[in-house]
Amino acid sequence: MNLIRKRKLLFFINSYSDYLGDFVEALEKSFRVQVFLTQKNTIFTNYKIKNKITYNFINRKNFNKKLENFSPEIIIVGGFKHFLIKKIIEYKIKNNTKLFLWLERIKKNFLFKKKIYSFSYNYIFKSCDGILAIGKEAYNYYRSLNKNTFLIPYNVNCKIFKRQKCKKNEINILFVGQLIERKGINIILKALKSIDHNITKKIKITFVGNGLLNKKISNFKSNNNFPKINLYNFLSRKKLLNIYSKNNIFLFPSLYDGWGVAAAEAMASGMALIISKNCGISEFVKNNKNGIVIESNSSEISRAIKYYSHKPKNIISHGKRNFQFIKKSLLNSRMAYKAFILSLRKFS
User: Fold this and answer.
1) What is the residue range of 322's domain?
2) Per-residue pLDDT tens listing for the chain (348 residues)
3) What is the rounded distance in angstroms from the CA atom of residue 139 to the CA atom of residue 137?
4) H/E/C letters for each residue in the chain?
5) Could you tell me if 214 and 179 are in contact, meaning their C-beta atoms sit under 8 angstroms apart?
6) Which residue from 176, 240, 267, 278 could staple onto 262, CB 3.0 to 4.6 Å apart?
């Protein structure tokens, strides 16, 4: 363990995220960690990075110097299409550095694309020492390309989340993410319009995020006699933790999502889930046990909301199960850290 504590670990990630910060914080127990970012934010986020020692911004010009100065013994790259991947592999070979790729699943209906990936990027998968797979589907696929594949999903620090405090019969629904079509915003609004007024009058729904459909949500609130809608732009995690604690159902009906970290944050807050089967993290949701897995369409969203409106006790029981489950799962940064340490033993 003392040898592991002295190792220098470097992340290559395109942009910052809170879940990355959680995993880095957990890894810092045993490693000296640095993160090389390509950009601070996406067009939908507004993170403030406080620790400038851990997080550095890189480009093609300063990359080599910063890499040589840090001299990592372990490198983790988020995505096999990183714009510096060839340079990273060259460094790995030259310096005998351990290299891991941290990868989401590939879209199910892209079967032809899968073949292209496995053929065109075969040298990348062969060159790395292992793959950290984000979910079981990713694990099953990437294991065929590299036998050293380990299950390490995106994860969150469960300790910082507050347990939801909704009253017994409240139905407070929350969506967190980009306000774009792929995330299911259009079908949420269509579903709300179709639900009987006797149910909708009991519902409060909150949207948190930025995106092209922000105005559409505002207009829906004005034009459909649906006053209990709250809409917030991107929020800092401190403010978001408070929002989670005031809601008890998390709605995540994406048409496609490689994973879906916000759902893990909702679980850590003790919320029930309505989640699309097209989201990678849905593998942790069991129907009528800790949530409802749906198809990405308005009728399925309506059905799930009606289910919880008729069985409010299940909102509480499903939320409790999520709260208890996530602490012991790989969705918890502490558990993901332990799994990563175990995966490294293979190379000791």
Assistant:
1) 158-328
2) 444 457 999 999 999 999 999 999 999 999 999 999 999 888 888 888 878 789 999 999 999 999 999 999 999 999 999 999 999 999 999 999 999 999 999 876 555 555 666 667 888 998 999 999 999 999 999 998 899 999 999 999 999 999 999 988 899 999 999 999 999 999 999 999 999 988 888 899 999 999 999 999 999 988 887 769 999 999 999 999 999 999 999 999 999 999 999 999 999 999 999 999 999 999 999 999 999 999 999 999 999 999 999 999 999 999 999 999 999 999 999 999 999 999 999 887
3) 5
4) CHHHHCCEEEEEEEECCHHHHHHHHHHCCCCEEEEEEEECCCCCCCCCCCCCCCEEECCCCCHHHHHHHHCCCEEEEECCCCCCHHHHHHHHHHHCCEEEEEECCCCCCCHHHHHHHHHHCHHHHHHCCEEEECCHHHHHHHCCCCCCEEECCCCECHHHCCCCCCCCCCEEEEEECCCCHHHCHHHHHHHHHHCCHHHHCCEEEEEECCCCCHHHHHHHHHHCCCCCEEEECCCCHHHHHHHHHCCCEEEECCCCECCCHHHHHHHHCCCEEEEECCEHHHHHCCECCCEEEECCCHHHHHHHHHHHHHCHHHHHHHHHHHHHHHHHCCCEHHHHHHHHHHHHHHHC
5) yes
6) 176
Contact between residue 341 and residue 31 where contact means Cβ atoms under 8 Å apart: no
Same domain, 175 and 294: yes
Nearest to 85 by CA among 9, 146, 12, 141: 12
| Other CB atoms within 10 Å distance of the CB of residue 61 | 7
At 39, which CATH number? 3.40.50.2000
What sign does the CA torsion over 306, 309, 313, 314 have? positive
Structure tokens belonging to residue 25: 């914080």
Together in a domain, 205 and 299: yes
Together in a domain, 116 and 205 = no
Reported pTM: 0.94
